[in-house]
Design goal:
Blueprint lengths: L6 E3 L2 E3 L3 E3 L8 H9 L5 E2 L3 E2 H5 L3 H6 L9 E6 L3 H14 L3 E6 L4 H5 L10 H14 L4 E8 L7 H10 L4 E8 L11 H10 L4 E4 L5 H11 L3 E4 L1 H5 L3 H11 L7 H19 L1 H15 L6 H8 L5 H18 L1
Parallel strand pairs: 3-11, 4-6, 5-6, 6-7, 7-8, 8-9, 9-10, 10-11
Antiparallel strand pairs: 1-2
The structure holds flavin mononucleotide.
The site of flavin mononucleotide (FMN) has 21 residues, from helix 10.
């Protein structure tokens, strides 16, 4: 079985078939480019408010920026009004995105209470109207990302994936866990993903519980999906997709030197500064540095210092000192 076979979402080739998940607060344009350079087959914006697009909200428009070297790139939209979602999708198509994805999985209270994200899992009639409206509004491929269900034990995938497919979506992304079960690895139900793959004819991308390279291989083997989507693993290790590919090919994941990891962080700092200016970029980098150094000795002290700096040179100095001390100790 060649699990790294490319596939198409509509007319867009996904090669390799491992993609970066939308992660609010992280998957901005510089981070997407970084992960793309480690061979992601597709990258996603974080979820974009359809109301924000409709009302031309400045913060929403910040999320819409992308660069040509990210392509193919999918814009993920959220909302619960079919007309506003259709408007946003059409606007984003015009901006040059390759794919539109509709969020039907976000568990955040603010989103759910507005009837969007995972609240849609409870409303098949509205799911139908939304997919229909967005499908009519755009020519580029359309996908939907959904969770297994809302309440623990519930599985709405069979019903919803058939609605989504029959209304003309080009692929379905399944996070095989309910909203109530949150993000618990032991509750990830890959069997539910396999069942969808067996019953729909559009490509299926499996998501959830990808922590190590071996999880990517297992997801392909257990579910038979066309593609695998990795989220949190890429946040701590932007090279994760390349490593997973190497693991599938050779049985050995990538092993990077600390100096190579440092260079990757430095590259991200530089791209964030180009995109957002020094002050904002240095603030943005705090959360990334926390993920990149997760579990390393001395990280709490590094975090305290990083949280106090405001200039690129100071940040670089801290990072170099931290990584060089570590390299010397190896
Ligand atoms: C901090 C955070 C932000 C997220 N933001 C989004 C989002 O904007 N849109 C979305 O569809 N999913 C979002 N997700 C869910 C991920 O895309 C993904 O479905 C989930 O993390 C499971 O994949 P993983 O186990 O590989 O991380 C988010 C998850 C986290 C942890």
């Amino acid at each position: 079985m060649n699990m790294l076979r490319s596939f198409k979402i509509g007319n867009v080739p996904i090669d390799p078939p491992i993609v970066l998940a939308p992660i609010a607060g992280f998957t901005d344009s510089p981070f997407r480019i970084l992960v793309k350079n480690f061979t992601a087959g597709l990258v996603y914006t974080e979820m974009i408010s359809s109301m924000g697009v409709f009302f031309k909200d400045a913060k929403t428009f910040e999320l819409i920026k992308f660069k040509e070297n990210e392509k193919p790139v999918s814009a993920q939209i959220f909302g619960n009004d079919p007309d506003k979602l259709a408007y946003a999708a059409s606007y984003l198509e015009e901006k040059g995105f390759d794919i539109i994805d509709i969020n039907m999985g976000c568990p955040a209270n603010k989103i759910v209470s507005s009837g969007a994200g995972s609240a849609l899992l409870k409303n098949p009639g509205l799911v139908k109207k939304i997919v229909q409206a967005v499908r009519t509004a755009v020519k580029i491929p359309l996908t939907v990302k959904l969770r297994k269900g809302f309440s623990s034990g519930e599985n709405v995938l069979f019903e919803l994936s058939h609605i989504i497919e029959s209304e003309g979506a080009d692929a379905i992304i399944i996070h095989g866990i309910t909203v109530e079960d949150g993000f618990k690895k032991d509750k990830e139900d890959w069997e539910s993903i396999r069942q969808v793959k067996e019953t729909v004819s559009v490509p299926v991308i499996g998501n959830g519980g990808i922590i190590k390279e071996t999880d990517v291989k297992n997801m392909f083997e257990i579910t038979g999906v066309d593609g695998v989507m990795a989220g949190r693993a890429c946040i701590g290790e932007p090279w994760f997709i390349k490593s997973a590919i190497q693991f599938i090919d050779t049985g050995i994941p990538l092993s990077l030197l600390l100096s190579e990891k440092l260079n990757i962080i430095v590259k991200l700092v530089e791209m964030e500064i180009d995109e957002k200016g020094e002050e904002n970029a240095i603030k943005e980098m705090r959360k990334f540095i926390q993920s990149f150094t997760f579990g390393m000795r001395g990280v709490a002290a590094l975090r305290d210092k990083v949280n106090k700096v405001g200039k690129k040179d100071e940040l670089m100095g801290l990072l170099r000192a931290f990584f060089e001390v570590k390299e010397a100790a190896v």
